[in-house]
Amino acid sequence: MSKLPASPQTLLSLSYLNIWKYSFMNNYVFDCRLGQLFTHLAYVLKGNVTFISANSCIQANSGDLVFIPKRTRYTSYWKGNPEIEFYAIQYLFEVQNLSIKNLNEKKYFNDNYPLQIIKCPEGVDFAKLIKQLEEHYYNSDDLLLAVSDFYSLYNQISKNLICYTDKQPNNHIIDAIYYIETNYTKDFTISDLAKLCHISESSLYQLFKKETGYTPIEYKNRTRIRHAVELLSGSSYSIELISKILNFSTPSYFRRVFKKIMGKQPSEYRNNDRI
What we know:
This protein is 40% helix and 25% strand.
């Protein structure tokens, strides 16, 4: 869709809009190193995802709506159990009135946003709004309704968008998370991560725990277990071999970590998954 009508008496003109519904099995990696010309919204229906960019790292689950600013270079790691399903909405605004005097309003029309999860306002159902937008979008007779749907959605989104000036992302933790996500089978210590991130061990530990809710080693184990789930569901590898592939010290330690995170033994998980 190339050119869309502007909303009456609005400061913004919607010049581009597109919506897709994607579905994958088990896992999916999207590497957007060049960035995108359009702003994106990703609404997670099934599975979970980790987005990593130069200045943001967020984890989103089913029911979360993710805002991805235009020109953002990022990689997303999607995990399903076993299915991944999400809506992707692309859009582009043109500002029609540049004489905005209210600075609080002005922030909604610039590009100074980080990649972020958008908090859903009370009483608002993002899933319902997006589903309605999809239905109208793919019916050529309802194009104007689709535009109206999107403006309604954006009106709710703009209330909770956070500017960079509101909260600065921590690049040290982003570096640490990216390293763990791409080197989870390697043996490394907090000291190794601290040297990589050029901060002290104590600072790394405290910042990492604050940002993610886990210690670096807990996060590494959870990353390994996510991949263990994929192998248990999608292969006939023995539990001992999976433990070795993921570089757990012993199969018994792998079983112990798996049960702590998943609430059941690997063999129980595999048997239940096949029922």
